[in-house]
Amino acid sequence: MRYRWDRISITDFGGVGDGKTLNTKAFRAAIYRIQHMRRRGGTLLYIPPGVYLTESFNLTSHMTLYLARGAVIRATQDTQTWPLIAPLPSYGRGRERPGGRYMSFIHGDGLRDVIITGENGTIDGQGDVWWNMWKQRTLLYTRPNLIELKNSKSIIINNVIFQNSPFWNIHPVYCSNVVIRYVTILAPADSPNTDGIDPDSSSNVCIEDSYISTGDDLVAVKSGWDEYGIAYGLPSSSITIRRITGSSPYAGIAIGSETSGGVQNILAENINLYNMGIGIHVKTNIGRGGFIRNITFSNVYMENVGKGIKIAGDVGDHADDNFNPNALPVVKDITLKSIWGLNIQQPGSIQGLKDSPFIGICLSNIHLHGVSGSKYTPWQCSAVSGAALQVSPWPCSELTSASQESVCSQFS
Q1: Residue 207 domain flag
Q2: I want to staple 220 with a disulfide (CB 3.0 to 4.6 A). Which of 254, 276, 286, 385 is the partner?
Q3: Which of 195, 200, 216, 226 is catalytic?
Q4: What is the CB-side half-sphere exposure of residue 15 using CA atoms within 13 A?
Q5: Are residues 156 and 242 in the same domain?
Q6: CA distance 394 to 31
Q7: Does residue 212 sit within a domain?
Q8: Looking at the keywords, is Coiled coil present (predicted)?
Q9: Which of these, 261, 44, 252, lies nearest to 156 by C-alpha position?
Q10: How far is CA 141 from CA 107, 132, 190, in A?
């Protein structure tokens, strides 16, 4: 982490942390100063204790946003003044609504050397007004993320609490060299689509040592949506996810379902999941195209989970009716090893596509124990090949063929 010799405070620009004063001008003025003064080594913007209400704002390169202990940057709930931006080219439209989308609360495009850190201060999206609009179907455009960094590299986010995002929490898209660690991400279990961290068409990403409890997937690796993601063609690759703990009614660690640009070389290890809908979820669909390959899940503990492992080719909606039904995803070389679960309602399902079976699936040393006093729901499999070693309850016959055991031989 780069040390910034040049330091300024939001109070130098008229910032008031009373929770009532609107600080948009102060944030924009401070960041304008950082951008145009161009101090050697960059500048640290210090947010002292207090609650700083503001509209959305853009970061700039070579800056550190530093939240002191007790500092809160809080989003205004005036949705009428929220800026609109163009849809992502790999999505072709807003993720929820056609057309543009609301800019993220804290935004950046084309940045280099950006740090968001502090002493566990809080970035609060006050998302309930947006959740209600979604539930009431009154949204005009796609809800804003809490933080989105686009086309950026050399990003560090750590020691910050993120809460009540309107939509996805942290969204690095078309980014590289990103480290997210020691963060806490919180949203109510019934808050819609409040994914924790969604690296999207990004590479060289490390997500570690964090606690996430939200209303959707804790971490979801994505790479574009249907024909738009195929055309953009930027994979997510070389991503490490480790030492994550959390809970959600949806998935713990997910791949997809938007994977049209491809997802490869992902390692998720030392994960602890509690009170989950699904523990591990690899998901794609007909029309997605792209690929999901060389994915490893290792040393995962899960407790009170609906379904332990799900790998599926029929998940997720489409951007529009122009997707190509012949664009079938390729799913191969997925390894799941050293996974233990208690109170698991169903151990798992692997449902490939008839015309594009999932191949090279390895299950090794997996023990998913059912809910006490109830009978196991068995594994469910179709259009899949691979191998299983030391798995209980014993999985489907498609994964137990002796001719396929070389898939798992390195773990025997």
Answers
A1: no
A2: 254
A3: 216
A4: 29
A5: no
A6: 57
A7: no
A8: no
A9: 44
A10: 17, 14, 21
Q: Give the predicted TM-score (pTM) of the model.
A: 0.97
For the chain (412 residues), the mean pLDDT of every run of 10, in chain order, is 94 98 98 96 98 98 98 98 97 97 98 98 98 97 98 98 98 99 98 98 98 98 98 98 98 98 98 98 98 98 98 97 97 98 96 97 95 79 95 89 58 46
Among 232, 238, 230, 246, CA closest to 294 = 238
Buried b (16+ CB within 10 A) or exposed e, 175-199: bbbbbbeebbbbbeeebbbbbbbbb
**37-51 pLDDT, tens digit each:** 999 999 999 999 999
| Same domain as 117, residue 42 | yes
Say if CB 158 and CB 117 are below 8 A apart. Answer: yes
Residue 72 CA, distance from chain mean position: 23
State whether residue 374 is helix, strand or coil.
coil
Amino acid letter for position 136: Q
The answer to whether residues 83 and 227 belong to one domain is: no
Residue ending a domain, among 140, 168, 196, is: 168
Cβ atoms of residues 282 and 263 within 8 Å? no
Is 40:91 a contact under the CB 8 Å cutoff? no
List the domain range (segments joined by +) for residue 321: 217-411
Q: State the total domains in the chain.
A: 2
> What tokens appear for 392 in the block?
């209980």
Mean pLDDT of the chain: 96
Q: How far apart are CA 6 and CA 12, in angstroms?
A: 13
Chain position carrying tokens 């910032």: 15
pLDDT tens digits along 281-310? 999 999 999 999 999 999 999 999 999 999
In angstroms, rounded to a whole number, what is the distance separating the alpha carbons of residues 376 and 345?
7
